[in-house]
Design brief:
- With 132 residues, the protein is mostly helical.
- It has one domain.
- The protein contains five helices and no strands.
- Helix 2 packs antiparallel against helix 3.
- It is elongated and about 65 Å long.
- Keywords: Metal-binding, Zinc, Zinc-finger.
- This is TraR/DksA family transcriptional regulator.
- It holds the Pfam family zf-dskA_traR.
């Protein structure tokens, strides 16, 4: 990594604070979404348990699909929240904005679009090609 790369990664305390506020706000928003989705899931379960009289195979299938969708949503929200929690930890230890793959800087434009990004575009593309 060149001196210029290192210099561009150094943030002022104001910038760090702004990033932290934005990351924390999104984390808190995801926490609220999770709490709401969890409450909806619990209501769905209560309705499912109390309203099974007269269900046919189609009704059971619909309820199963709704339950699966609710569980998938919960997992997705938790995963996204964990990404933001990881980003906050990286900000705290000074590694936020550095690629976890090559240690190079993650472009600011990428971080603006996806603040919890942990890899540069090149490493992300390489990883996706290996998986596919």
């Amino acid at each position: 990594m060149s001196v210029n790369d290192t210099a561009t990664m150094v943030r002022s305390q104001v910038e760090t604070d702004q990033i932290q506020v934005a990351l924390r706000a999104r984390y808190d928003e995801l926490t609220r979404e999770y709490d709401e989705a969890m409450a909806q899931s619990q209501v769905l379960r209560l309705v499912e348990v109390s309203d099974t009289a007269g269900d046919d195979q189609a009704d059971s299938g619909t309820k199963t699909a709704e339950r699966d969708t609710a569980q998938s949503l919960l997992r997705t929200i938790l995963e996204r929240r964990a990404q933001y929690e990881h980003a906050l930890a990286r900000l705290g230890d000074g590694s936020y904005g550095q690629c976890e793959g090559c240690s190079g800087p993650i472009p600011v434009e990428r971080l603006e679009i996806f603040p919890a990004a942990t890899s540069c575009v090149s490493c992300k593309q390489h990883r996706e090609r290996r998986v596919a």
